[in-house]
Amino acid sequence: AGAISALTPIAAMVLAIFLLREYPTKKQAVISFVPVLGVLLMTAAGNSLGIAPWYGVLVAIGNCLFCALFRVVNRWCAKDFNFFQRTWATMVTSMVLYTVIALIALHGDVHRYLEPFHHSGFVGALLILAVFCSVTATLLANYGAGRLTVVRYSALGTTTTLVASLAGILLLQEPISLPMCVGIIMIIVGVWKVNTTGRNA
Questions:
Q1: Pair 142, 89: CB distance under 8 Å
Q2: Residue from 24, 79, 7, 16 nearest 195 by CA
Q3: Residues 189, 34 contacting (CB under 8 angstroms)
Q4: Cα separation of 181 and 162, whole Å?
Q5: Mean pLDDT, the chain, whole residue set
Q6: CA 64 to CA 102: how far, in whole Å?
Q7: Best-predicted range by mean pLDDT among 7-11, 68-72, 104-108, 155-159?
Q8: What is the pTM of this model?
Q9: Which residues contact 117 (CB under 8 A, 6 or more apart)?
Q10: Which of 137, 150, 144 is nearest to 32 (CA)?
C-alpha cells in the first residue's frame, strides 16, 4: 500500500501534463523519481521489519489516483479561488459528508453521536486533529498548491513518509535500518533538487 501510494507524485505529474498543460523540464521529470524511490525503499524496509504490511492493493491504487487528481484539481482551482476559499470549501464539504455518514451508521441516533464529546480526552484529540492536522495543514497545502507547479508540490508531498517514519523512530522507538536511512536521504535530496531545478517550460 505504501509503495503504491508513493507513486502519487508521478501520477500527479502525468495528470498535470494532460489536464493543466504543465510540462516539467526533463531534469525535473527524472529527478522527481528520486524521492519516490526513497519512499519505496523506506516502505520495503518497514515491511521487512514488520512495520508496514502490504495489503489493500485496490484501495491503495484508488488512494493514489484520487490524491493525484486532487492535487491537479487543487492547482487548477487556484486560478480562480484563493487558498482560504479552497480550504473552507474542503473543510465544509468534509464536515457535512462525514457527519451524514456517521449519523447513517448510527441510525440517526444523535445522542450516540454526541456522547464522545463528554470525554475530555476525545475533545482534546479532536481539537488537535481539527486545528493542526486538518485546517492548518490544508491551508498550508492549498497555499503551496497555488504557488508551486504540480511537480514541485507533489515532490514535497513525499516528505509525509519521511516525517511519519522519523516520528515513529523518535516517539514510538520503532526500529530503523540502513535501507530506511538511504530512503530518507533520497527523499531529502530528491525534493530539494526538484524544487531548485529550473522552472517548467
A1: no
A2: 24
A3: yes
A4: 10
A5: 79
A6: 25
A7: 104-108
A8: 0.66
A9: 123
A10: 150
Residue 72 grid cell? 491537479
Each residue's pLDDT tens digit, 86-144 = 999 999 999 999 999 999 999 999 999 999 999 999 999 999 999 988 899 889 888 98
- What residue type is 47 in one-letter code? N
What is the reported pLDDT for 121?
92
Using CA atoms, how far apart are residues 17 and 19, in angstroms rounded to an integer?
A: 6
| Closest listed residue to residue 164, CA positions, set 63, 43, 24 | 43
197 or 126, higher pLDDT: 126
DSSP 8-state code for residue 148: S
Spatial separation of the C-alpha atoms in residues 52 and 194, rounded to whole Å: 27
CA 88 to chain centre: 18
Q: How far apart are CA 67 and CA 88, in angstroms?
A: 19
Rounded distance, CA 161 to CA 110, Å? Answer: 37
Separation in Å, CA 119 to CA 43, 108, 114, 122:
36, 21, 10, 5
Contact 155, 194 (CB under 8 A): yes
- Whole-angstrom distance, CA of residue 177 vs CA of residue 124: 34
Handedness of CA 23, 29, 31, 33 (dihedral sign): positive
Q: Return the residue matching grid coordinates 530512503.
A: 183
Q: Alpha-carbon Rg of the chain, whole angstroms?
A: 19
- In this predicted structure, what is the pLDDT of residue 201? 42
